[in-house]
């Protein structure tokens, strides 16, 4: 019986090749995109779930009350872990970890049999490193190729991934080998762990001993609880004897003991590992965004199924006699249902082959353009096969059941007489509703496309208040204090190059680099510290003119290697309670144990962070030992030549470091990776939704033309023009698309308005965006309908009238 169903189904599809092609392609695109979005959702919801103690792992974070609201950070004080161990030994496991961004390592030269090799440098721009203690590996699961973490309690030790071991030494048998971390601290390899096979937010390739931090940073741990670094993290595992409720109860006493001056304004909440990945306060991914993309995937499948239903019901009249004959010959309703569902299953099976191709191609694109969002392969895992089977079953039912019920429900006498009406064959009303639904989905995506593209264009072209073009940043070695003589030598070598027209040193690089340092100050003669925490930045006297920052009052900083004078921005002036910039000139900023600094100038506000954040109060001063970035203005032209010359000069001055450079506009662009990723996804899926919708329209028009051939001939004989016949076919769909727009616009406005609220600086979400989306959809639909309509309108009416 099943073989008979599929044989007949195959013959039917072969007779209706165009309709089959439209259905297979549309369903294939929809299912393929749904699989891609399933991959994205699965990746994010499975992050770090492979750890055995996943449900019991927590991170202790910091939250500070300020007049402007809570300030939260994933970091804790450096001595937080030791204090917690001492006060609460009942906590199962506790590990402190210091993240090490963009590690640089040197493999020392080897000397064998009188021959020697050069040191090999590796700058891991995309990888992360860390310093921790053995307890970390009791919290998180690692598999070991060689050695283990037991010796990580000793200073000068290191464990690394198998991939890194092969890169540095050519083998995973690397125990006992030596690496120099950031070119200054030697570490012995005591363990090699298996490469990360699962999704994780902690993909550390090199993990050094926390006991090495004193040598690495060249300073002892800061014993004060008032100093919190965002890269210093604390993880614990809890059991039934000590729960988050116990910690919330004990926290006031802990604060009173270790941070008595900030009991009211400080908290150290426990955040479960299961929530960290989606916590946007800690650089997580928005769960609403991920779920929205999943809904888009379902919408695309629904859109493709609508095509199938529309075309199947439209063709129902052509198959009326077939149904009548089958019923007269004894076929039951259930047998006919089985036959038509079998045809649907065959189409879905063929569509699944197309979907796998779409998925594979989309996966390769995602790995290239989406910054690692799909950095895994999961073919043929049980959960994926189950999802595919569920998706196929759902599509077969969604697309096939209604048309099958319509066809199987024809009365044989009426069917054989050829008197099946449009209403009996599924009805225009149902098809109109499905077309409206289909294009409402498409227009929501198109509106999203226009909004995201407009916001990204606004972000990229907004005047941020400083120069970006042809500006290059070079990272200096990550030493506790910079060598001033080396800095002077490098400046002299760089400024002697004809292609370098400006040079400046600063704490981190350009504005909007993402590096911020928040502190507390006391202003002038006021007795108490300010309740707000301004950002501080160390810059030299060349920084302001180099980046084209504007002074609204006072003057620039004088040359100095130490903190002597300060500049503030307009936001700082307002925060201090003054209405005019001139009012703060000559007043003093007192910062901890540092010298008091007179304010000598006020800078016009400029964006120091991304456009998601408002411009906050800031002050700037000179401090050469804290400079970690060299900023250069280059002449436009042969960048490669001058960069090569700068690298030679840098390696001459800093032979044990790595030449790490980046253009300022590239750094700014990196700040909006999530938005760019969202833009690419929305663009892709909006295009797919429109393509699927237009394929369905084309199929429906094709059917309508075949059904109205004689009518077209009569109209032409009576004098109808080609334009009037075009309008005959287009008016129906234009009205439906306009109605779909009325449904799509409010929903799209709400969703995109929610997204735009994450930006302090954003586009005006006005009527123009909706008009663009509507016109784009109408134009694409009209072109689709018109192609087949023009062909019909140009046919000789004599042939049209003889067609029946």
Description:
InterPro entries: ABC3_permease_C, MacB_PCD, Macrolide_Exporter_MacB. It is a multi-pass membrane protein. Pfam families: FtsX (PF02687), MacB_PCD (PF12704). This is ABC transporter permease. It comes from Fibrella forsythiae. Helix 1 (2-15) packs across helix 11 (333-369), helix 9 (287-314) packs parallel to helix 20 and helix 14 (428-461) runs antiparallel to helix 20 (673-707). This protein has four domains: 1-47 and 283-426, no CATH class; 54-276, no CATH class; 445-458 and 672-804, no CATH class; 477-656, no CATH class. It is 48% helix and 16% strand. The longest helix is centred in the middle third of the chain and has 37 residues, at 333-369. Residues 111-116 and 413-428 have low confidence and may be disordered. The protein is globular and about 100 Å long. Strands 1, 4, 5, 8, 9, 10, 11, 12, 13, 14, 15 and 17 form a twelve-stranded mixed β-sheet that branches. Strands 20, 21, 22, 23, 24, 25 and 26 form a seven-stranded mixed β-sheet that branches. Strands 19-27-18-28 form a four-stranded antiparallel β-sheet. The protein contains 24 helices and 28 strands. With 804 residues, it is of the alpha+beta class.
């Amino acid at each position: 019986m099943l073989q008979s169903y599929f044989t007949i189904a195959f013959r039917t599809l072969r007779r209706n090749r165009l309709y089959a092609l439209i259905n297979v392609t549309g369903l294939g695109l929809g299912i393929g995109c749904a699989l891609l979005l399933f991959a994205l959702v699965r990746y994010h919801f499975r992050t770090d779930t492979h750890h055995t103690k996943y449900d019991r792992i927590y991170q202790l974070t910091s939250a500070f009350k300020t007049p402007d609201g809570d300030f939260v950070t994933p970091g804790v004080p450096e001595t937080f872990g030791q204090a917690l161990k001492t006060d609460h030994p009942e906590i199962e496991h506790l590990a402190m970890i210091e993240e090490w961004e963009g590690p640089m390592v040197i493999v020392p030269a080897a000397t064998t049999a009188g021959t020697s090799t050069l040191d090999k440098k590796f700058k891991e721009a995309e990888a992360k490193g860390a310093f921790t203690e053995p307890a970390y590996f009791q919290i998180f699961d690692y598999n070991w190729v060689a050695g283990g973490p037991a010796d990580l309690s000793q200073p000068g030790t290191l464990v690394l991934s198998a991939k890194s071991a092969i890169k540095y030494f050519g083998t995973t048998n690397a125990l006992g080998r030596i690496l120099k971390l950031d070119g200054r601290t030697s570490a012995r390899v005591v363990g090699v762990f298996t490469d990360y096979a699962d999704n994780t937010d902690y993909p550390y390739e090199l993990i050094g001993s926390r006991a090495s931090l004193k040598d690495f940073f060249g300073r002892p741990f800061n014993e004060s609880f008032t100093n919190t670094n965002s890269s210093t993290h604390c993880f614990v595992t809890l059991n039934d004897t000590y729960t988050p409720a116990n910690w919330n109860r004990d926290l006031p006493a802990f604060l009173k003991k270790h941070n008595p001056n900030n009991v009211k304004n400080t908290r150290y909440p426990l955040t479960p590992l299961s929530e960290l990945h989606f916590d946007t306060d800690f650089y997580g991914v928005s769960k609403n965004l991920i779920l929205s993309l999943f809904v888009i995937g379902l919408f695309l499948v629904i859109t493709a199924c609508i095509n199938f239903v529309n075309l199947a019901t439209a063709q129902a009249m052509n198959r009326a006699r077939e149904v009548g004959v089958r019923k007269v010959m004894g076929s039951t309703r259930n047998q006919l249902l089985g036959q038509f569902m079998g045809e649907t299953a065959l189409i879905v099976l063929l569509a699944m082959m197309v979907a796998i191709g779409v998925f594979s191609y989309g996966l390769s694109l995602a790995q290239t353009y989406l910054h690692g969002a799909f950095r895994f392969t999961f073919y043929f895992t049980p959960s994926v096969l189950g999802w595919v089977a569920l998706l196929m079953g759902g599509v077969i039912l969604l697309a096939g059941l209604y048309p099958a019920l319509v066809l199987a429900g024809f009365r044989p006498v009426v069917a054989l007489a050829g008197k099946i009406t449009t209403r009996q064959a599924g009805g225009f009303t149902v098809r109109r509703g499905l077309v409206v639904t289909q294009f409402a989905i498409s227009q929501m995506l198109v509106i999203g496309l226009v909004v995201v593209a407009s916001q990204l264009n606004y972000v990229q072209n907004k005047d941020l208040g400083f120069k970006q073009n042809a500006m290059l940043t070079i990272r200096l070695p990550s030493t506790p204090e910079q060598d001033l003589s080396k800095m002077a030598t490098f400046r002299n070598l760089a400024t002697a190059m004809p292609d370098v027209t400006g040079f400046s040193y600063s704490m981190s690089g350009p504005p909007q680099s993402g590096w911020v340092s928040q502190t507390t100050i006391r202003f002038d003669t006021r007795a108490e510290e300010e309740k707000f925490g301004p950002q501080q930045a160390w810059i030299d006297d060349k920084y302001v003119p180099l980046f084209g920052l504007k002074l609204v009052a006072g003057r620039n900083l004088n040359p100095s290697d130490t903190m002597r004078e300060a500049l503030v921005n307009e936001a700082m002036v307002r925060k201090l309670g003054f209405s005019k910039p001139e009012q703060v000139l000559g007043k003093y900023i007192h910062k901890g144990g540092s010298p008091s600094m007179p304010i000598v100038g006020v800078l016009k506000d400029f964006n120091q962070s991304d456009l998601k954040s408002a411009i906050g109060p800031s002050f700037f001063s000179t401090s050469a030992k804290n400079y970690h970035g060299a900023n250069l203005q280059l002449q436009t032209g042969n960048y490669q030549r001058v960069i090569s010359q700068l690298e030679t000069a840098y390696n001459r001055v800093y032979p044990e470091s790595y030449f790490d450079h980046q253009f300022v506009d590239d750094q700014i662009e990196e700040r909006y990776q999530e938005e760019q990723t969202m833009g690419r996804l929305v663009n892709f899926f909006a295009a797919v939704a429109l393509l699927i919708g237009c394929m369905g329209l084309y199929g429906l028009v094709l059917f309508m033309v075949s059904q109205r051939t004689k009518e077209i001939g009569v109209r032409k004989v009576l004098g109808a023009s080609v334009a009037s016949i075009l309008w005959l076919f287009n008016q129906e769909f234009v009205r439906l698309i306009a109605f779909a727009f009325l449904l799509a616009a409010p929903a799209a406005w709400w969703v995109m308005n929610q997204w735009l609220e994450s930006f302090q600086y954003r586009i005006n979400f006005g009527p123009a965006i909706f008009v663009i989306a509507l016109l784009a959809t109408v134009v694409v639909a009209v072109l689709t309908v018109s192609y087949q309509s023009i062909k019909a309108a140009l046919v000789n009416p004599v042939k049209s009238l003889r067609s029946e």
